[in-house]
Specification:
Layout (H helix, E strand, L loop, with lengths): L2 H11 L4 E7 L2 E7 L8 H18 L4 E7 L1 H7 L1
Parallel strand pairs: 2-3
Antiparallel strand pairs: 1-2
Helix pairs in contact: 1-2
């Protein structure tokens, strides 16, 4: 699975998010920025991303996911 495939899956489940994806074999690095993360704790944010990739993780296509999630305000503070 390439980076664009993962990005496409995430964009379907995370509307209005800016998403960046890097893939190294079956390991995926994700940065997701959007309103969907407002008011959510870290674990809740991760659950949103994992839910979008559940099928690929269960099948073993994706083995490991490293993610960083931000609200728009949080992203503006570090960008």
């Amino acid at each position: 699975m390439n980076a664009q495939d993962v990005k496409d899956l995430l964009e379907k489940q995370l509307p209005d998010c800016e998403i960046r994806v890097e893939v190294d074999g079956s390991h995926v690095n994700i940065i997701a920025v959007g309103k969907i993360f407002e008011g959510k704790r870290t674990v809740q944010r991760q659950q949103v991303v994992y839910a979008a990739l559940q099928e690929q993780i269960a099948s073993g296509v994706i083995h490991a996911v490293n993610m960083k999630t931000f609200t728009n305000e949080e992203w503006q503070q570090i960008a």
